[in-house]
Specification:
Blueprint: H1 2-21, E1 170-172, E2 175-178, E3 180-181, H2 190-195, E4 196-197, H3 199-211, E5 215-216, H4 219-228, E6 236-241, H5 247-258, E7 264-268, H6 270-273, H7 282-290, E8 294-299, H8 310-328, E9 334-336, H9 344-352, E10 357-363, E11 366-368, E12 375-379, H10 386-397
Parallel strand pairs: 2-6, 2-12, 3-4, 5-6, 6-7, 7-8, 9-10, 10-12
Antiparallel strand pairs: 1-11
Bound molecules: zinc ion (ZN).
């Protein structure tokens, strides 16, 4: 009986092992063992030969579904490669802030050291632990505030141009014409006598002009009066000296300076170039110009300028102007026709050469802008007495 039970038990165990390891069928059972079709275990019931005592209790049907223990584990998905961590930037080392609070230990060596600044309020019986914060109330008050009191010196205030009254149509200024201011030579002819005023007479005339209140002006002053309206002084007069004789520098200029007068000297270039003994040199002209005299032009030579070619006129009229300006350093703006002779060509060249005016030997004392290249003059005769001289000026003053 026991053997029989053992036999069945072993058989059941073997079946269990087989079913667990066999590949599962569609019904979950091994292919060779299907419970639905298999004969019930009860058919394995003991045959009739068995003994009735063997009350066999049929083993329960194996309802246990076999767990598929042999399932292949899924292949592991490879983990992503780990990105390396960034290297840690080293943290800045903490700079240790010195917290050393320096409590000043005031060692009073001498009270004189603190003399000007700290008012020694502490008594000298202080304990050595001077916790007194040094009350350095002596903040250095920099009183050096540079107060820039720069007052802008607007010194060169441009003087506005003067406002003149409207210029007159004409002025009446006697332009006296002298030649020689010298003694008469022994062989003087009538021409030389007429052209020569001896220095004594010349000074008498100057004294008379001075006493009568005349004011010597230049031809530039006359021109300015007519062109701009700049007024002329009362009783204006112009003193001109033709030909540039050497006595102009020796005799005339010193007497003019004696009375504070100014003279207008019409000089020649060629005698100066050759340093002719009877004429002014370039150096003398410069000295006269530097002395305040007006040195103007009379021609390169002393030729008659009528019926001349253009080149000749330019040479005589412009040539002397450039030469005198170069040697005196002053502008030459007025011309004097030699022997008082001129024509239309002469007038045109004088104007185109840059002259502002010119004087003649025509008698008169009326100047206008429209006749500025033919201004008349008053020829002084060497044979005149002082009364004649004074009478002629009186007639011009009366408006004759
Ligand atoms: Zn002359």
């Amino acid at each position: 009986m026991k053997k029989l039970f053992r036999f069945w038990a072993v058989t059941l165990l073997g079946l269990l092992v087989l079913t667990s390891c066999a590949p599962p069928s569609r019904t979950g059972w091994p292919g060779w063992f299907r419970p639905a079709e298999a004969a019930p275990v009860a058919t394995l019931a003991p045959t009739a030969t068995r003994s009735p005592s063997s009350t066999y209790t049929p083993t329960p049907t194996l309802t246990k579904t076999p767990t598929p223990t042999c399932t292949i584990p899924p292949t592991r998905t490879p983990q992503p490669t780990r990105t390396p961590r960034p290297t840690r930037t080293p943290a800045p080392t903490a700079t240790a802030t010195p917290t050393v609070t320096l409590t000043p230990v005031l060692t009073f060596t001498s009270a004189a050291l603190l003399s000007p600044l700290a008012t020694p309020t502490l008594p000298m019986t202080t304990t050595p632990e001077l916790t007194a914060t040094p009350v350095l109330t002596a903040t250095p008050e920099l009183t050096m505030t540079p107060e820039l009191t720069v007052t802008p010196t607007l010194s060169p205030t441009a003087t506005p141009p003067p406002i003149y009254p409207p210029p007159p149509e004409e002025v009446h200024v006697p332009i006296l014409m002298y030649h020689y201011i010298s003694e008469l030579p022994a062989d003087a002819d009538v021409y030389r006598v007429n052209l020569t005023v001896v220095p004594e007479m010349f000074e008498a005339q100057l004294r008379y002009l001075y006493e009568q209140g005349y004011h010597t002006v230049t031809l530039q002053d006359v021109y300015d009066a007519l062109a701009t309206g700049r007024p002329l002084p009362e009783k204006s007069i112009v003193l001109t000296f033709d030909d540039g004789y050497k006595d102009a520098h020796i005799n005339a200029m010193p007497l003019l300076q004696k009375y504070g007068f100014v003279g207008e000297f019409f000089v020649l270039a060629t005698p100066a170039h050759y340093e002719s003994p009877q004429y002014l040199t370039w150096a003398e002209m410069r000295l006269m110009a530097e002395a305040g005299m007006s040195v103007q032009a009379h021609g390169r030579d002393h030729y008659d300028l009528t019926n001349r070619a253009y080149d000749f006129l330019v040479y005589q009229i412009l040539g002397v102007k450039e030469a005198v300006e170069a040697h005196t350093g002053q502008p030459v703006r007025f011309f004097c026709y030699p022997s008082g002779r001129y024509d239309e060509d002469t007038l045109a060249v004088v104007e185109s050469a840059g002259y502002l005016g010119a004087v003649t030997t025509q008698w008169g004392a009326t100047q206008r802008l429209d006749n500025r290249y033919t201004w008349p003059r008053v020829r002084i005769n060497g044979t005149w007495s002082l009364e004649t001289f004074a009478g002629i000026l009186a007639d011009f003053a009366a408006g004759e």
